[in-house]
């Protein structure tokens, strides 16, 4: 019995060892397969990342970005500057590319790059000290213009038409796409009574275009990039001031049309805030002109009676949206108005503005300088 029992135990041990061995082999196989999969995924991901890093940041974006390369800059510091300014996606990949191509001799200076440039084009510019090619078109959009006036300028300067520009800025699908890409654009721009959703949001500046045939999308998005850059600097101050971004932009557009100098803008901004605080109508002529859709040397009483959500002789508070684009100076005045006791102001037609605390004083200025 003892011998049979030992044989049984030995057989059981063999079976157990066999099962253990099979379990170990299964575990090893699973680990090896897992490692192979991880390495394969890592290799594919790494390849995709490097391939993406070698490509331009934004093909088709020809907006110039100024970058200063200081004297004595190393290739590492140049690569980091390019990444910080979004000229390249990854500074490490750019450094490896430079080493692989055995490139050197980069020159200090002020450069204008674009997000559409390839590594080779960037390297060639840095080696030659060449700023890059001159823009094909340079278009200046002044302050205080409406969408329609902006469309007219671009139609005159670029190979596009006013009709196509207006059609694009009134395309609801395109506006929705822009709102996703530019989070600063508020829901307010979808108000059904607005003439144009982007009115006031196409920033006044000089724009360079490096393509022979820039698309309308490129034109609009270059302007929104500038708006986003400028407005972004004032977001915290807007929050502290009590007005939403859309209200601030609307206020800035009115100030832009009412005043020229920084001092005038701050004073008039203060007057508008004083009126809002006591529930007084803003009664500003530029909003009447926008409401009637025309240009006049003098606003008549019948003009002020037009029923429009833009006419501040008709409504209380701010209009439902901006009446034009604006300068950074007007935006700063809208955010930081001058504190005064004034509630009235009067233009004399010669560039002078007279401020009053009372209606009686305001009417006296009218009799002296207008009638």
TrEMBL record:
The keyword NAD does not apply. One of its GO terms (molecular function) is lytic endotransglycosylase activity. It catalyses: a peptidoglycan chain = a peptidoglycan chain with N-acetyl-1,6-anhydromuramyl-[peptide] at the reducing end + a peptidoglycan chain with N-acetylglucosamine at the non-reducing end. One of its GO terms (cellular component) is plasma membrane. InterPro entries: MLTG-like (IPR003770). GO terms for biological process: cell wall organization; peptidoglycan biosynthetic process. It is found in: Cell membrane. It is a single-pass membrane protein. Keywords: Cell membrane, Cell wall biogenesis/degradation, Lyase, Membrane, Transmembrane, Transmembrane helix. CDD domains: MltG_like. The chain crosses the membrane at residues 27-50. The record marks 258 as: Important for catalytic activity. Pfam families: YceG. It is an enzyme of class 4 (lyase). The keyword Iron does not apply. Its EC number is 4.2.2.29. Coiled coil: none annotated. Belongs to the transglycosylase MltG family. Functions as a peptidoglycan terminase that cleaves nascent peptidoglycan strands endolytically to terminate their elongation. This is Endolytic murein transglycosylase. It comes from Ornithinibacillus halotolerans. The lineage of its organism: Bacteria, Bacillati, Bacillota, Bacilli, Bacillales.
């Amino acid at each position: 019995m003892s011998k049979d029992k030992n044989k049984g135990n030995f057989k059981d041990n063999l079976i157990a060892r066999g099962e253990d061995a099979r379990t170990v082999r299964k575990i090893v196989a699973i680990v090896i397969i897992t490692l192979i999969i991880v390495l394969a995924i890592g290799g594919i991901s790494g390849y995709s990342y490097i391939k993406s890093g070698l490509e331009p940041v934004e093909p088709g974006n020809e907006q110039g970005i100024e970058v200063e390369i200081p004297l004595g800059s190393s290739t590492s510091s140049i690569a980091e500057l390019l990444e910080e300014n979004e000229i390249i996606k990854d500074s490490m990949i750019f450094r490896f590319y430079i080493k692989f191509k055995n490139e050197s001799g980069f020159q200090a200076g002020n450069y204008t790059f674009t997000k559409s440039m390839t590594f080779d084009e960037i390297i060639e510019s840095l080696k030659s000290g060449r700023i890059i090619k001159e823009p094909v078109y340079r278009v200046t959009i002044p302050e205080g213009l409406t969408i329609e006036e902006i469309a007219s300028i671009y139609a005159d300067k670029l190979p596009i038409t006013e009709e196509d520009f207006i059609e694009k800025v009134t395309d609801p699908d395109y506006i929705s796409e822009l709102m996703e890409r530019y989070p600063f654009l508020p829901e307010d721009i979808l108000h059904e009574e607005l003439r144009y959703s982007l009115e006031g949001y196409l920033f006044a500046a000089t724009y360079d275009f490096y393509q022979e045939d820039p698309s309308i999308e490129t034109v609009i998005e270059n302007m929104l990039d500038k708006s986003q850059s400028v407005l972004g600097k004032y977001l915290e101050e807007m929050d502290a001031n009590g007005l939403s971004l859309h209200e601030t932009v609307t206020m800035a557009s009115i100030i832009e049309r009412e005043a020229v100098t920084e001092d005038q803008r701050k004073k008039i901004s203060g007057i508008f805030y004083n009126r809002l605080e006591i529930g007084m109508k803003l009664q500003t002529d530029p909003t009447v002109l926008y409401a009637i859709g025309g240009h006049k040397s003098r606003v008549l009483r019948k003009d002020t009676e037009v029923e429009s959500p833009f006419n501040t002789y008709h409504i209380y508070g701010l209009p439902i949206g901006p009446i034009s684009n604006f300068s950074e100076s007007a935006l700063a005045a809208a955010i930081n108005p001058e504190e005064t006791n004034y509630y009235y102001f009067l233009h004399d037609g010669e560039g002078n503005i007279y401020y009053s605390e009372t209606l009686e004083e305001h009417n006296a200025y009218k009799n002296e300088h207008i009638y």
